């Protein structure tokens, strides 16, 4: 048994994808090892765990002022993230009290647009092996197209700062191989530092999820007669071509006439021209997690939508969730993507670029791939591989 300290920004299991994996790692590692946690005051431990000690930062007096509408306007005008600074100070104050030399491993977690825990831990010397989990690229110029932003003096300075921060780490942990290689171009760490382990398969007991006919009726679908995409549709993820391909297949009677296409989640671009298309249902709002699970269980196939670029180093959190449902999966996004890297060429019939009408039509006609039946793919998400690393 190892002694592990996990230092993480807010842990709220059902809020962010990074918080989800942090919660899952804490849950799993604490079953096998002695695990202590340092986190923030807004953490919610709404999951099973065997944590030995939890230390929480104190909520800074000015935090609510910074997060208020007026505070956000002021600091946006100043281009200044004061909330980030006071959270960093709160972490530093608490972490100073920790005896790092009593641990075998110290792991920094944090998502979103900064690495508070990573930065603070890099300031302390320790005998423990220091690991840093890198969920997303940072700063903005490190993102690939279409999320890339031009470099500024501020982001250049941050890039230089985190170059020095990451040099203090023994291991940098990434959820995808392509993300590790992509960020290496900016931060120049060695291959020896890289550890890749993806988002974990969720603990979903599919058999216990009730499929309610009345609730399906509210969404306008019938069990096993619809394809579903669950998640936010951003401007780079426009679904126009996908809907056009689906409608043409229905018009030509190449797919079942009772089949419907359901999108559930916020749609963040002008989609008025897509309303009223036969058998296409757009639910432009957040839906409760239990209803998403019910819809996924009832669906004929599950859709993952990335973006219209040529490269995606990200592993969508929906991918391991969808695998847990053991349904056929379709992927619409770049060919050069982490999903295709994991699945390999033998499964290329389930994926198509988001703006390629012909390729999308072939994937829809094929109906997706039962990827959960592939042992190689499922072993990629095996928690024992992570546990054995400590």
TrEMBL record:
One of its GO terms (biological process) is lipopolysaccharide biosynthetic process. Keywords: Transferase. Pfam families: Glyco_transf_4. Residues 26-198 form the Glycosyltransferase subfamily 4-like N-terminal domain. The keyword Zinc-finger does not apply. GO terms for molecular function: glycosyltransferase activity. Signal peptide: none annotated. SUPFAM superfamilies: UDP-Glycosyltransferase/glycogen phosphorylase. InterPro entries: Glyco_trans_4-like_N (IPR028098). This is Glycosyltransferase involved in cell wall biosynthesis. It comes from Flavobacterium aciduliphilum.
